[in-house]
Amino acid sequence: MTIKIEKKIIGYDLVNDKTVSTDKQSDTAAEPKSTVNIVQMHERVARPEMLLGSTYKLKTPGSEHAMYITINDIILNEDTEHEQRRPFEIFINSKNMDHFQWIVALTRITSAVFRKGGDITFLVEEMRAVFDPQGGYFKKGGKFMPSLVAEIGEVIEDHLKRIGMIVDEEMSSHQRKILDDKRAQYEASQETPSRADGEEGNQFPQGASLCKQCLTKAMIVMDGCKTCLNCGDSKCS
Questions:
Q1: Which of 27, 165, 168, 203 shows its CA 20 to 30 Å from the CA of 125?
Q2: In a domain, 138, yes or no
Q3: Tens digits of per-residue pLDDT, 114-169?
């Protein structure tokens, strides 16, 4: 390859491999070294002696005993700009022993997925898609749960939102005001209290039907248009 020299030559020097190597070492020494060894979540991360945890109470209409779900988190790269909180293990405890075997299996598999690292949010959708062949149930507030596994998945989702692994897209104040106005108009036209089918604690009108988007009894019909007062899903939009 021919190189054309445009400027006048004023000097020269002999360059060998040793000189090039010395120059590279000096350049490397001049560069600032990173003092932070970033730790990512993987199966080889050792469990600390103490973990931060949150316990959630889950009460289903199918059992007289409550279920307590504890999720322990590990803090990676503590006190650095790369600090990250990740779920490490899950435990489920209840006086009801009917589901003991599959609950133990579920917690061990879920804990293994937590420790594997990477994107674990897929667990939520997989668990929420489990349907009980005997039918689901409505929890307090009018939300339909297709199975006990699905509600455990919802607890995991709530926890992941709390630690920032899932970002919840909140409804704007303008959208919320529109839904509140629709609810007020609907209740005024029906002249009925805001309680559906006698379900205590339900916050939506009595005539509301099940929304297929958020699985909540909050779908009303106004002016020939179905609108969910919970998530805002509408058949006319």
A1: 203
A2: yes
A3: 999 999 999 999 999 999 988 888 887 778 899 999 999 999 999 999 999 988 77
Nearest to 91 by CA among 47, 154, 156, 42: 156
Closest-CA residue to 24 (of 36, 15, 34) = 15
Largest separation between any pair of C-alpha atoms in the chain: 98
Q: Mean pLDDT, the chain, as a whole number?
A: 81
Residues 137, 110: one domain? Answer: yes
* pLDDT tens track for 63-105: 889 999 999 999 999 889 999 999 999 999 999 888 889 999 9
Give start and end residues of each alpha helix (H) in 82-203: 100-116, 122-128, 148-162, 173-190
Q: Which of 126, 53, 112 is nearest to 85 (CA)?
A: 53
Question: Which domain range does residue 139 map to?
Answer: 52-162
Which two three-digit tokens encode residue 80? 């650095």
5: Cβ contacts below 8 Å, ≥ 6 apart: none
Answer yes or no: do 102 and 157 share one domain: yes
Distances (CA, A) of 79 to 36, 84, 85, 156, 189: 11, 10, 12, 26, 57
